[in-house]
Every structure is written in structure tokens, then in C-alpha cells.
Amino acid sequence: MFDYKLLAALAAVVEQTSFERAAQVLGLSQSAVSQRIKLLEARVGQPVLVRATPPVPTDIGRRLLNHVQQVRLLERDLQGQVPALDEQGMPERLRIALNADSLGTWWGGAVSEFCIREQLLLDHVVEDQDVGLKRMRAGEVAACLCASERPLAGARSVLLGAMRYRALASPGFMARHFPDGFEPALLPRTPALVFGPDDYLQHRFLASMGLAEGFLHHLCPSSEGFNRLAKAGMGWGMVPELQVEDALAEGSLVEILVGHPVDVPLYWHHWRNGGQLLERLTRHLCEGAERWLVPL
């Protein structure tokens, strides 16, 4: 049988990204947390953490984290049936991985009512939509929102819709780089804006016009900063339509090529044995996502 105090220590170290913060959350000394991790490793016969900065789970550590995530959710179901078991009366917490653009646009409106009703607290882990599933695979989150359709073993995925992105730039940028009108062949030689190394939206836009992937670009790992740089004329970039309705209306940003958006599908992934809370959240998202996302 598992000693869930040891598993809780493992989960806290990974979720809080350090032994020190894990100790604060658990109300223990840092030495006590370290001892629990060592005892867990002795019982499973191999390391569960790589002592890096931040600590990362090993393969067996990820499997244990997946297990403890699901146990927490199932315990919540049991507490609902036997209220006396809920000694602390604390709200449930879920760690969810999602892309910065969803977090900065439609996500709050989609989940706020649910979180209030369910007394649910969310820990948001921001990852690009193309790689968010790796957090769930690592056992760090109970669910994720990403562009990957194929679920992990033991998990389900459901298509919520797509985020529509448009290639935008400031009027000044367009006048400077395309004085005679937009010419696609010139685009790779004009500065672009890229959110991070896992952001391939600009690559997709160029590929859709038959252009090579290589292009000049600034890196800007901030959703708000990305838009500010675009408005300042530093580069062109793929921006969520939901985020720039006002900018398009007032003319501070213009579409590089009208009627040529890129739609990114968003799939909601969650564990099959994640309990009723995750099932209800999934239904809530499926019923309400069409208000913000483009149907596919």
C-alpha cells in the first residue's frame, strides 16, 4: 500500500518547484520533506526526482504523480458522499496547463461560474498550445488545453473548438515594409514577433503561402507584450482575434492579408479516472466553449 504522506511530499515538490516552498505548503520543515522523498525512493527502489532547479520527476515519479492527482479527485467525490471525512473543509485545487492566449482571452469567462459554484481553486500552468500535453504526461497537472488531439493512455480528449489567429501589424509597419502594397515574398525579410521557441503560428502562416520557414523575428514571451510590440510597429505576428477586436476597430492594428486566418484547434484532455469534478468541468467547457471558439 502507498503511504500518501510520501506521495503528497512528491507532489508538493514538483508543483511548488522547490523543497522549500513544498515545506511551507505542507507545514513541515524542509528536512522533513527531503526525508519523505528519500523514504519514498527507498520503498520504490529508485529515484522519483531529479535534484535539479527546479526538481523534475523521473519516469516512476511521473507515474506516481499521475496516481496522486487522480486519488485527490476521487477523494473529493467520496467527501461529497461522506461529509464527515472532509475535516478541513478546504476548497479543491486543480492544476491545469493551457496556452497563454486562452488564459488572456476566453478562459476566465468560461470557468469563473464553475469555480464559484464548485468552490474550486485553479493553479494555471502556462505552456504553448503545441506542447501543453507534456505537463500532463509528467503528472504535474490534472488536465490540459492544447492543440494535440491524441490523448495519453488513461486519459480522454475532446475538441472544444479553435482559436482564430490573424496576421497583424501596425499601419506604420505596413507602410514602411510594404509601401506598394503587401507582397508575400517580402514577408520573410520583415521582422516578425514570436512568442517563444514552441510558437509555430508564424511558420504556419508563411507555409500557407508557400514560403520557406526561415524569417527574421523578435522573441516576446508575453501575450500583452506581444500586442504592444505589434502596435509599436516592431513586427508582424499572429494574434488571437478575441484579443484585438478593439485594436482592429480603431485601426491601431491591421490585417496583413485579409481573409487569411489560422485556426488552431483546442482539445481538452483529462484523466479517465479523474472523478466527478473533472467530468463536470469537462461538460461545462463543452457546453460553453462555442461562445468564444470557432467551430471546426
Automatic annotation (TrEMBL):
Signal peptide start and end residues: none
Any GO molecular function: DNA-binding transcription factor activity
Superkingdom of origin: Bacteria
PROSITE patterns: HTH_LYSR
Entry keywords, A to Z: DNA-binding, Transcription, Transcription regulation
Keyword Cytoplasm: no
Entry-linked InterPro entries: ArgP, LTTR, LysR_HTH_N, LysR_subst-bd, WH-like_DNA-bd_sf, WH_DNA-bd_sf
PANTHER family for this protein: HTH-TYPE TRANSCRIPTIONAL REGULATOR ARGP, TRANSCRIPTIONAL REGULATOR
Family, per entry: Belongs to the LysR transcriptional regulatory family.
Name used for this protein in its record: LysR family transcriptional regulator
Upper taxonomic lineage: Bacteria, Pseudomonadati, Pseudomonadota, Gammaproteobacteria, Pseudomonadales
